[in-house]
Design goal:
two-stranded antiparallel sheet, 395 residues, globular
Length: 395
């Protein structure tokens, strides 16, 4: 997030994995942007509108992504699409983050961030951002299409002629034939793809902040929905590691500054502080990186799935962590304005998002149960199923 930043120059598993890669840069962009020095003096109204809009936009993918993650989790357990939700299909099964992945992630993120820093130092920024624009155009179209799919399904009536299609690429022939791509879709998915492509072309040629936000919201929602932590301990490891990562790269070096100012991609949400003066052509933005949304968001989504597993018809841990996120983000903005200096958002979000639910669990006497909650990765479930089937055959 920043007080004001000039506009950039004009110039589902795969989607989930791509979002994970993007997050390595998102945190740098989102947190460093707090370090920008304002050249535009925003009015109090413009500042309030910008930061209020950013907070609201940050809450949307966390709230709806968490709800959709529950449906994906149910689909994973059933081994098939949950026809009642329509959110998660076989091609968009969640990616489970284990404790080993969580421990390695800050190191991978640091290497990626420093690699980008060197890349921008050695090669022309113009050509790198051209490649990034094409890369994120493809990812953005797929992510936005997946995000819109449930809405389109509800808009069109059941009488709509919804034809089924399959995109299949194979390698080899006969018994050695292997599937490379096997994607099933229908007419409604094609409509989503067309609409998303229009937004993608708009972003590619105009780099408009609204198109950027549509892609950014889609990336964030897909990240919260499709990236699953397997337990609360893993979430604490991931958030704790990125807490250190965020503080170090913001306060310790200028690497984030360089990358954030050079990197042109929809991996941040932006809102103009001069919207009231210039309308849609405004170009002095307050910003929030997607890493500051998705990283706490996947932990909040885990707590919602824990609430569901308790079968108590309450969402205590979800709402407590959700309110904690609002508190942490508000505190980030307050400290930034008070000290006029870069503030890594995870410095405030991580203690809030972990601390609030833990206190609630202590009060309710469910702390042990919270940390015992476990989600099994799909590959382990398949191994268990195969093992149980083989045991039955042996018997």
């Amino acid at each position: 997030m920043s007080e004001a930043e000039p506009a950039p120059a004009s110039a589902s598993e795969a989607a989930a994995a791509a979002i994970l890669d993007a997050l390595n840069t998102t945190d740098s962009n989102g947190t460093e942007v707090l370090n920008a020095t304002a050249k535009f003096v925003a009015t109090p109204e413009g500042t309030a509108l910008a930061y209020g809009s950013l907070v609201f936009m940050a809450l949307l993918p966390i709230f709806f992504g968490a709800l959709r993650s529950v449906d994906c989790s149910k689909s994973k357990e059933l081994g098939e699409n949950d026809s009642g939700s329509g959110f998660c299909n076989a091609a968009d099964m969640p990616e489970t983050i284990t404790s080993r992945d969580a421990a390695r992630f800050p190191i991978i993120a640091s290497c990626t961030l420093f690699g980008l820093y060197l890349f921008f130092k050695v090669f022309s920024q113009e050509y790198i951002n051209l490649l990034l624009s094409v890369y994120f155009f493809v990812l953005g179209v797929l992510a936005l299409s997946h995000t819109m799919s449930p809405l389109i399904s509800r808009i069109f009536p059941d009488s709509f002629p919804n034809k089924q299609f399959q995109l299949l690429f194979t390698q080899g022939s006969g018994e050695s034939k292997e599937e490379i791509v096997n994607y099933e879709f229908d007419s409604k998915n094609l409509i989503c793809l067309v609409v998303s492509s229009v937004v993608g072309v708009w972003y590619l040629f105009k780099k408009h902040w609204i198109a950027n936000n549509l892609f950014g919201l889609a990336f964030a929602l897909n990240g919260v929905e499709l990236l699953h932590l397997n337990n609360v301990s893993t979430g604490c490891i991931l958030l704790g590691g990125l807490f250190v990562y965020d503080v170090f790269w913001v306060f310790g070096t200028n690497v984030m500054v360089t990358v954030a100012k050079s990197f042109e991609a929809p991996i941040k949400l932006v809102f103009p502080q001069d919207l009231l003066e210039k309308g849609l052509q405004a170009n002095n933005f307050a910003m929030l990186g997607l890493g500051d949304i998705v990283i706490p968001g996947i932990f909040i989504a885990l707590l919602l799935r824990f609430d569901v597993s308790l079968k108590k018809n309450s969402r205590t841990y979800f709402y407590s962590s959700f309110l904690a996120y609002i508190f942490g983000l508000g505190l980030t903005i307050f400290v930034m304005h008070t000290f006029k200096h870069a503030q890594p958002a995870l410095l405030y979000l991580v203690p809030a998002c972990i601390g609030f639910p833990v206190v609630v669990a202590l009060i309710k006497g469910e702390l042990t149960e919270m940390f015992r909650y476990e989600e099994t990765p799909p590959e382990e479930e398949e191994a268990k199923d195969e093992g149980s089937e083989s045991q039955k055959k042996d018997q």
